[in-house]
Amino acid sequence: MSDDIVVDHLTKQYKKLRAVDDLSFSVRSSRVTGFLGPNGAGKTTTLRMLLGLVTPTAGNATIGGQKYTELPDPIRHVGAVLEASSAHRGRTGRNHLRMICRAAGLPDSRADEVLALVGLTPAANRKFKGFSLGMKQRLGIAAAMLGDPRVLILDEPANGLDPEGIHWMRDLLKAFAAEGRTVLVSSHLLGEMQLLADDVVIVAAGKLIRQGPVDEVLGSMGAAQVKVRTPQPAELTTALASLDGVTVAPQADGSLLISGTGAAAVGHAAFTASVELHELASERGDLEQVFLQLTAGMAGIR
Amino acid sequence: MRLVNAELFKLRSTSLWWIMGIVLLPLYAASVLANWAQYANTNAGDVSDPDQAEAVRAALEPINVATSMYTSGQYFGILILLLLAAIIVTSEFFHLTATTTFLVTPRRESVILAKFGAAVLVGVLLWLLTTVLNLIFVPPIMSNLDLGSQLGEPAVWRAIGLNLLAFVLWAVLGVGLGVLIRSQLAATLLLGIVYVVGTPAVGLIFFLLTRYVADWFDKLQVLFPPNASQLMISGTDLPGNPPRWVGAVVLIGYAVITGVIGTLITKRRDIS
Ligand SMILES: Nc1ncnc2c1ncn2[C@@H]1O[C@H](COP(=O)(O)OP(=O)(O)OP(=O)(O)O)[C@@H](O)[C@H]1O
Ligand SMILES: [Mg+2]
């Protein structure tokens, strides 16, 4: 059975607000898919509809071809981390996990296994109210791992994690995808996403803006850039002006950022114009730039 | 069944249950002592109104004293049970654990059913606790009142059995009301206050209605759930009261209505 996630013309209308508007995208297994969008874009609402917690106004969403609510033992198939702070304050971390084990028919010992997996063993008997934000986040991830699921869905899991924690999570999710499983993760941390995600789904104002492999999305936006350092910036700019669709942006540090063409073309133009180069480097596009470009005018709280 | 087990585990793994237990024990002791004092000091001859004197005389019959004494703790036991049952539901929303719960079990009616089951088991447990304590402490009190233990009387055992039914029905009612009210604070305050203050307040309202509007209002007092459960466990049919089965019917009616409405609401509600 495939573990792809398919979101099909999903719509959620709150009283006045269309939080999710005819949204369709798909998420493939064996890859990490980043789910990006400005605040209020409808990411959380979409994930909650996917997980059967919120009823869509129209459309539907399936995981491996089935609705979440129709999966026989859902947490053995799908693991989800939605809010970091969703445990009873007076219950210990271990008991929070055991409670899930009991309801799902998993052995209590799974609780200790996942606690070890997320590095929470020392805090297992501490009450949830004594957890730091990062510990709560880890407990959420532990809960998602209980059923050893084929599909992981995470809503801003990096929130509150320290750099080491983020690194740990990145490795965890990549390893997860490498085993052929499906990972859908929403986040605002675009730099992190660029390191983590293979595919991205970008939404704004409840609508799909772009989906595809990270490199393709960056490429399509002409996001690849060439960085040049030269003692003759004016001459180089003139030489490049003859090329179609090329823009040159002087940077504060004295270098030039050139988009719309490749390093080879820039080098050739410099050579033919006898411009001296001290540095010539292709830079991978910046997801943050592209994201801001794509969602320009659509961000903002609705 | 594994969901009921999980619900009981949820209850056991926080401090709520033993706090409630600690609250219940002194309240139980107080109600036994209060009952005792009341029966030791009341005398039908003191009451002037002949109708009331008749009612008091009936209440002082050994069998009626016995049924009341052997179900001591019902009032507070059910109060605690009502709050626990409501909290079993409201804490899921208060602590945002509803997300986790419904992710594990997307069939929400199963979750609510399990909560009904867990609350009923808690009710049975509380009934067992108060009944065992009553069977230990009440016989000496009965002999102090010169009434004998009365344990040979089937009516006593029937009252104890009906007391169990009352606990079960209130457990269902508590869960249903918890779903309907949902806010933890509102649910505990509202249920606690209505339960405690409600009986005299309702008594007063019905007294006024009966007096100034129509006599038949008096018969409607049983529609207030605490009155219904009181009536259900009384030893014999007391003069001036509807028959016992009416109390049972009223409670069952409330339990079914809140249970069904609560389940339907939970099924449709967005969890966010
Ligand atoms: N229960 C609700 N009732 C009314 N409006 C809601 C409800 N839940 C969400 N919304 C609105 O729907 C929109 C989308 O919210 P959502 O939480 O899905 O955004 P998001 O993409 O997750 O944002 P963020 O990045 O800030 O987490 C917001 O404008 C929000 O105010
Ligand atoms: Mg969100």
TrEMBL record, chain A:
<dbReference type="InterPro" id="IPR003439">
    <property type="entry name" value="ABC_transporter-like_ATP-bd"/>
</dbReference>
<keyword id="KW-0547">Nucleotide-binding</keyword>
<keyword id="KW-0067">ATP-binding</keyword>
<protein>
    <submittedName>
        <fullName>ABC transporter ATP-binding protein</fullName>
    </submittedName>
</protein>
<dbReference type="GO" id="GO:0005524">
    <property type="term" value="F:ATP binding"/>
</dbReference>
<comment type="similarity">
    <text>Belongs to the ABC transporter superfamily.</text>
</comment>
<dbReference type="InterPro" id="IPR017871">
    <property type="entry name" value="ABC_transporter-like_CS"/>
</dbReference>
<dbReference type="InterPro" id="IPR027417">
    <property type="entry name" value="P-loop_NTPase"/>
</dbReference>
<dbReference type="Pfam" id="PF00005">
    <property type="entry name" value="ABC_tran"/>
</dbReference>
<dbReference type="GO" id="GO:0016887">
    <property type="term" value="F:ATP hydrolysis activity"/>
</dbReference>
<feature type="domain" description="ABC transporter">
    <location>
        <begin position="5"/>
        <end position="230"/>
    </location>
</feature>
<keyword id="KW-0813">Transport</keyword>
<dbReference type="InterPro" id="IPR003593">
    <property type="entry name" value="AAA+_ATPase"/>
</dbReference>
UniProtKB/TrEMBL annotation, chain B:
<feature type="transmembrane region" description="Helical">
    <location>
        <begin position="116"/>
        <end position="137"/>
    </location>
</feature>
<feature type="transmembrane region" description="Helical">
    <location>
        <begin position="157"/>
        <end position="181"/>
    </location>
</feature>
<feature type="transmembrane region" description="Helical">
    <location>
        <begin position="75"/>
        <end position="104"/>
    </location>
</feature>
<protein>
    <recommendedName>
        <fullName>ABC transporter permease</fullName>
    </recommendedName>
</protein>
<feature type="transmembrane region" description="Helical">
    <location>
        <begin position="188"/>
        <end position="209"/>
    </location>
</feature>
<feature type="transmembrane region" description="Helical">
    <location>
        <begin position="16"/>
        <end position="37"/>
    </location>
</feature>
<keyword id="KW-0812">Transmembrane</keyword>
<feature type="transmembrane region" description="Helical">
    <location>
        <begin position="245"/>
        <end position="266"/>
    </location>
</feature>
<keyword id="KW-0472">Membrane</keyword>
<keyword id="KW-1133">Transmembrane helix</keyword>
<dbReference type="Pfam" id="PF12730">
    <property type="entry name" value="ABC2_membrane_4"/>
</dbReference>
